[in-house]
Design brief:
By secondary structure, this protein is an alpha+beta fold. It has nine helices and 28 strands. The strands form seven sheets. Strands 13-17-16-15-14 form a five-stranded mixed sheet, with no helix packed on it. Strands 1-2-3-4 form a four-stranded antiparallel sheet, with no helix packed on it.
């Protein structure tokens, strides 16, 4: 309105406020559109789009528009900008960069830009193929449109690779006589817990088919719940928690010819009865969440559990009293300066300073997991007949969206296999979902399995994951499938 009236000062003020509002919600693409089209500041738009590429969930959209502006306003700098962007792009986003470069391959592109983007694309495709993502090879056709042999070479290579992967997986299977209940990945190894004749067994394996077994001389029940906690970036220690106190001695799994890293499996004996779970911090220490005597507290431990400090939590808003029930054990998730956990139907968000916010849900929470995306919080909370998706963009209040299962699954595990894709497994079924945007979660596919799935593990390559069933079978799956 101000623009039509010729009041450019007030119009500029309104557009500036709209830009600031967009940035408040981390909407860098809309902010850049306002800067470029309304405020006539293309340089600011480029800065915002580059920020959106590196820090927001609009990465694809922001980078596409960034390249479009560069090609229009600074065509002589476009090649250098592509090389700079590639150097600053983390491995987790290089597939997105490849997709954007592929869309910009047209005959109108400056030769210098086409050459630079081809060289960057070849490097990304090579890295992804070495990691097992052979689908990236399909992109070669966009960068070599006149080479009619590319498609045939791709088909021949992927067929050979598929046979090799089948041979790799055929030797990885756990003891069928043990009922496997829980597993976790640690770099190129995995650890699994199982029960046989009321005894607790532990298996260490890798994708070369090497398996080692050990056990504890202690009686366990099928009703016992176990939790395995690890952070390969911070520690070679794996924490084993049980829903009731058990005298489990520490297991040191030594480095040998089959396994290149020593692991230590430890069950801490100093945790309180009301411990909901624990997680590793960025400095290698651990934090547990205690729910007891009508209070939620944070307990901070050194790696060897020799000492700890406590943070008494302050409840934000009104909250019904929560009592710990015997045998309760849940996950504790961490994202930067916040911890997340649950008990019963209550989901908690806790700052490191102890400020606690509770979400009372209308379903009993069974499982949870958090996206590895570092830009903002995204958590899946699974209940018997569906799940909630909790989102909390930076600087905003969290939101919850409910999704009901299309069919019965009896969930046993939920795990994010990429920033925006998670898998829920259960009784003879596994369903994968993708988070499309802030309001949409779509079902990707459903797999029927021969037995109940118990844990989802990282595969040999970055774009793979594996499903461990309770009878010890391991199915390797591509994350893109």
């Amino acid at each position: 309105m101000y623009t039509r009236q010729g009041d450019h000062d007030n119009a500029r003020l309104c557009y500036t406020r709209a830009l600031e509002d967009a940035l408040h919600y981390s909407n860098y693409f809309d902010a850049a559109q306002i800067a470029e089209l309304k405020l006539k500041k293309p340089e600011q738009a480029l800065e915002l789009l580059l920020k959106g590429w590196t820090t927001s969930r609009q990465a694809d959209q922001c980078l596409q528009h960034y390249i479009k502006i560069i090609l229009r306003l600074q065509p002589h700098n476009a090649a250098g900008q592509i090389n700079t962007i590639f150097a600053q792009t983390p491995p987790s986003k290089r597939n997105v960069l490849l997709n954007v470069l592929e869309r910009h391959q047209t005959s109108e592109m400056p030769e210098s830009f086409a050459l630079a983007s081809r060289n960057v694309a070849y490097r990304i495709i090579s890295e992804l193929a070495l990691e097992g993502n052979t689908r990236a090879l399909q992109s070669l056709k966009a960068f070599q449109p006149n080479d009619r042999l590319v498609s045939a070479d791709y088909t021949r290579y992927t067929t050979l690779r598929s046979k090799t992967n089948s041979l790799e997986l055929s030797g990885v299977r756990l003891d069928r006589a043990i009922r496997w209940v829980k597993a976790i990945s640690h770099n190129n190894q995995f650890i699994a817990l199982g029960i046989k004749d009321k005894g607790l067994y532990l298996a260490r394996g890798n994708w070369n088919g090497n398996i080692e077994y050990t056990n504890w001389n202690v009686a366990v029940s099928m009703h016992d719940r176990f939790s395995l906690i690890a952070d390969p970036d911070q520690s070679s220690t794996i924490i084993l928690l049980c829903s009731r106190p058990l005298p489990l001695d520490t297991k040191v799994l030594e480095r040998n010819a089959s396994f290149d890293q020593e692991l230590t499996v430890i069950t801490p004996t100093t945790l309180p009865d009301g411990c909901l779970g624990m997680t590793f911090n960025a400095n290698g220490s651990l934090t547990a969440v205690e729910n007891n005597n009508y209070r939620i507290n944070l307990l901070h431990y050194t790696t060897d559990f020799a000492s700890h400090t406590a943070t008494l939590c302050t409840i934000e808003g009104s909250l019904p009293f929560v009592m710990t029930q015997a045998g309760s054990l849940s996950e504790v998730l961490r994202h930067n300066d916040r911890y997340f956990t649950y008990t019963g139907s209550t989901f908690f968000s806790i700052t490191t300073a102890g400020l606690l916010h509770a979400h009372e849900l209308d379903e009993l929470i069974w499982l949870s997991d958090i996206s590895p995306d570092t830009d903002y919080v995204c958590i899946v909370l699974v209940f018997e007949t569906g799940f909630f998706v909790y989102r909390q963009p930076h600087g905003t209040q969290g939101t919850l969206e409910r999704v009901d299962f299309d069919s019965e699954i009896t969930p046993t595990e939920v795990r994010f296999v990429s920033d925006d894709k998670f898998v829920i497994c259960g009784k003879q079924k596994m369903v994968s979902y993708r988070i499309v945007d802030a309001d949409t979660v779509e079902e990707v596919n459903t797999r029927h399995t021969s037995s109940t799935g118990r844990s989802i593990l990282k595969g040999r390559y970055r774009n793979q994951y594996a499903l461990l069933s309770e009878i010890g079978t391991i199915e390797l799956i591509r994350a893109n499938d």
